[in-house]
Automatic annotation (TrEMBL):
<dbReference type="GO" id="GO:0016491">
    <property type="term" value="F:oxidoreductase activity"/>
</dbReference>
<dbReference type="InterPro" id="IPR051603">
    <property type="entry name" value="Zinc-ADH_QOR/CCCR"/>
</dbReference>
<dbReference type="InterPro" id="IPR002364">
    <property type="entry name" value="Quin_OxRdtase/zeta-crystal_CS"/>
</dbReference>
<dbReference type="InterPro" id="IPR013154">
    <property type="entry name" value="ADH-like_N"/>
</dbReference>
<dbReference type="Pfam" id="PF13602">
    <property type="entry name" value="ADH_zinc_N_2"/>
</dbReference>
<dbReference type="InterPro" id="IPR020843">
    <property type="entry name" value="ER"/>
</dbReference>
<keyword id="KW-0694">RNA-binding</keyword>
<keyword id="KW-0963">Cytoplasm</keyword>
<dbReference type="GO" id="GO:0005737">
    <property type="term" value="C:cytoplasm"/>
</dbReference>
<keyword id="KW-0521">NADP</keyword>
<dbReference type="Pfam" id="PF08240">
    <property type="entry name" value="ADH_N"/>
</dbReference>
<protein>
    <submittedName>
        <fullName>Oxidoreductase</fullName>
    </submittedName>
</protein>
<dbReference type="InterPro" id="IPR036291">
    <property type="entry name" value="NAD(P)-bd_dom_sf"/>
</dbReference>
<dbReference type="GO" id="GO:0003723">
    <property type="term" value="F:RNA binding"/>
</dbReference>
<dbReference type="InterPro" id="IPR011032">
    <property type="entry name" value="GroES-like_sf"/>
</dbReference>
<feature type="domain" description="Enoyl reductase (ER)">
    <location>
        <begin position="16"/>
        <end position="301"/>
    </location>
</feature>
<dbReference type="GO" id="GO:0008270">
    <property type="term" value="F:zinc ion binding"/>
</dbReference>
Amino acid sequence: MLRSDLMKKVSFAEFGGPDVLHLIDAEEPHAGPGQVRIAVRAAGVNPVDWRIREGQVLGAHPTELPSGVGQDASGVVDEVGEGAEGVEVGDRVFGEGSSTYAEFAVLSAWVRMPEGLTFEEAAGYPSVVETALRIIREVGVRPGQTLLVSGASGGVGSAVLQIARDRGITVIGTAGAANQDYLRSLGALATTYGEGWVERVRRLGRVDAALDLAGSGVIRELVELTGDPRKVISIADLGAPELGVRFSGVAGSVPEALAEAVGLIARGRLHIPVEKSYPLAEAAAAHVDSQAGHTRGRRVIVV
């Protein structure tokens, strides 16, 4: 019989704004078959976290209340479930699970942290890299072609730019004025959004495919630039299908994505900076900042 101790965990009992998030005492979870439990060191803050908190209809993420928050985390394995292979208590890992804004969390997909990566940095990779790999694949862009990324300075955008460049794809990125040099540092041709942005993109070159990462109402323009709604993917605009554009919200293979992430990190081809860290008690502030956008890299909860 597993003992049940209490831990600190961020939870919400009703859908709503950031103020519905509360730090509570909760029973520690335990690793089931094929899972590991970690003592969480850091948890990634992703837009899907606050979309779920608001009660947005996300088919891949049915939510029962009360609910924990968070999918991504890094930490130290302290419990190994039956059938979980290649991992031992004490291993430093990062991966994807559930209710990761907590002192302990169960991961269903994980990988050992490469040398030189901090817990804060590692927590920012799992969902971001899986999403980036998936949408690059789904949009069908090939080496030698040009990919336009709208809202390119956040976590997914940072990963997309670097992975695409590693594959020989030219990338045009849009972001706020303060993030232009950041996009260029990741190998992108950069321009600002706002009035006249379509013409600024055209001056940078032909666009073969486009990704909408910010949900800022630019789907029509992305279709215009690519000439084909099938060459546009959105992860942020739930109305995209009304314009013939695919909304991509269902994760593919997280273990495969984590393995590819480790390879890219080890080769020095992928690095996503942590813009800001928050303690567990300030999860609501992390959500406010995430929803405001203009992120450069990642935001994480530190436990």
